[in-house]
Design a protein that fits this description.
5-stranded parallel beta sheet; Rossmann fold; binds adenosine-5'-triphosphate; alpha/beta; ATP-binding; PPS/PS; globular; two-stranded antiparallel sheet; 244 residues
């Protein structure tokens, strides 16, 4: 039990979630390394949601709300850290959720499918029995996608993604949105909208933004998207690390 008074309480709670998920068997061995890399970047950010992250989130939510078939791609880490927050966001913006694992095994997919069911979400895509197609006809696991999900999506939100997958997605012509604490990762660099923030803070924040933007005029959302410059925003995000 971590005492709430511990100066690194929040961070240790997240670590605990990753350790628990590892024991439950739905994370690959490398998941802890990915988490550690994220932790280090978050530490340098002061574990706070920055202004560039908020600006990217507004553009991201506006894009998702104007999309025909938006899909949120989830892996083991995102599930371990923010399952309820992901479900809440998906329901608020009417997006689908699809399982997408770097080291895909039937066992991990089944465990994650069960977890979403247990948390009240049974429509998850990318399951063992789903109809899987290959993006851009690239026959490798990193290009696999559910036929009714990412394969036919116009917008894909890929939190905590690896660079290979992000690159493939960006070549499909779909709008790609990422949540990645590293502004220099290939994922952040190749996405259309890169949110440099922790998934545990970003999802609840985006749900609040969505509740607001859903009541706004469509033209305001279009302007928000047109005014957003991902290159410029990523540069601003990077400067905040240097200023620490
Ligand atoms: P790339 O292949 O995109 O250059 P990478 O090799 O670092 O990046 P991975 O190790 O597969 O990619 O993925 C981990 C990424 O997720 C890292 O960029 C890390 O900063 C980020 N990350 C880890 N934990 C979190 C989190 N909780 N919230 C947001 N991003 C996170």
């Amino acid at each position: 039990m971590i005492p709430k008074s511990h100066p690194r309480y929040e961070s240790l709670v997240l670590r605990d979630k990753i350790v628990k998920a590892q024991k439950e068997g739905y994370l690959a061995e490398s998941a802890m390394i990915a988490h550690g890399r994220g932790e280090a970047f978050d530490y340098l950010l002061g574990e706070k949601t920055t202004f560039p992250a908020k600006r990217a989130m507004y553009a991201a939510v506006a894009t998702i709300l104007l999309s025909e078939n938006p899909v949120i791609s989830v892996n083991g880490n995102t599930t371990a850290l923010a399952i309820d927050e992901v479900i809440q966001f998906a329901k608020t913006v009417n997006a689908k959720i699809e399982i997408n694992l770097f080291y895909r095994t039937d066992e991990r997919v089944e465990k994650i499918t069960e977890l979403y069911k247990k948390h009240g979400y049974s429509q998850i895509l990318g399951t063992k029995d789903d109809d899987i197609k290959y993006l851009k006809s690239i026959k490798n696991e990193r290009a696999s996608a559910s036929k009714t999900g990412i394969y036919s999506a116009d917008t894909v939100l890929v939190p905590l993604e690896d660079g290979d997958r992000a690159e493939i997605l960006s070549k499909t012509g779909k709008k790609t949105i990422t949540i990645d604490l590293n502004p220099l990762s290939r994922t952040s660099q190749t996405s259309d909208i890169s949110i440099v923030d922790n998934v545990v803070r970003a999802f609840p924040f985006m749900t609040e933004i969505a509740k607001d933007l859903k009541t706004q005029d469509k033209q305001l959302l279009i302007n928000m998207i047109n005014d957003f410059d991902n290159r410029k925003n990523l540069k601003e995000a990077l400067k905040l690390f240097k200023n620490k």
